[in-house]
Amino acid sequence: MLEIKVAPSILAGDFARMGETVRMLEQNGADYIHCDVMDGNFVPPITFGAQMVEQIRPYTKLPLDCHLMVLRPDTRLEAFAQAGADIVSVHVEECRDRIVQTLRAIRNHGMKAGAVINPDTPVEQLYDCAEAADMLLLMSVHPGWGGQKFIPSTLEKIEKLRSFLVRSGRGELDIEVDGGITEENVRDVISAGANVIVAGSAVFRSADMRATIQRLRGV
Ligand code: DX5
Ligand code: ZN
Fold first, then answer.
1. Which of 35, 63, 67, 143 has its CA 20 to 30 A from that of 18?
2. From the CB of residue 100, how many other CB atoms can be counted at a distance below 10 Å?
3. Domain locations in the chain?
């Protein structure tokens, strides 16, 4: 049975007080801190880089789960490793035929490696990543912004990916889903086969963060 992990996204957090924000997330039961790195090129917005990861590192013991929405992520790995990142996920759409070697490079930097695909990318494009990855990430919104609506066709991609992994003997591999997840739709996401839940708005707009994080585990 896969452990369900909740990874609040700090994109929805307070950029002026990010240290206290991640400390609060840990105190309220989060499993990972999801860090949405955007370079203004792969996606239009700019958020933050490795320096933010370095600055929040001392405030939490939780794994820092860095989602690189950047061009040439292979050139950023050293900086994120130095900053204390635990997981780095890179986009298949950007890495293309370099995706497996990029995943290997992430591991060579002592971090766990994730491969990400956007909503319009067929799930089959993740299949070749499975052997070099520690986590596979399905975007359930178009990357760049928080607060968007969950794209329902993601559920079928999760099911296809989980059954592919089970068939190929990697049934225990983490599948992370990212974008538009709420207490209302999380059970569908988990029953489809995902076990790492990213949520930004749903966590930060909650009146009871601890209860929301608990409910995002599908309980
Ligand atoms: C979007 C990011 C997501 C987003 C999730 O590009 O990758 O992690 O911050 O935020 P919500 O949960 O508000 O959709
Ligand atoms: Zn993300």
1. 143
2. 17
3. 5-215
